[in-house]
Amino acid sequence: MNPIKEANAPMYYTIVRQPMDLKMIKARVRDGIIKTTAEFERDIVLMLTNSLMYNRKGTEVYQMALCMLESVVEKIKLFKAADSYSVQARKLLLASDRRGSREL
Fold it and tell me: Does the keyword rRNA-binding apply (predicted)?
């Protein structure tokens, strides 16, 4: 949720070179740094892979991060498909509008 504190996670910033957390992702969306689904996916996946890198395999945190990563990847695939469909629908509507305006 928030940036990792070294006191709670010794050597975190030695192991994880590019930290990411939900608070940072929210700020990046709000500030317009994240503009696309791919950019959002990149930061979410980075946050979860950081957790996998830092936490030992088999620990509860590792297992939760792995489960979340699998779930997020599937959800974003669905979102991208819907987004792609929406873009295609908009293109068809624009093309239809252009044809209609030529007939007037």
Answer: no
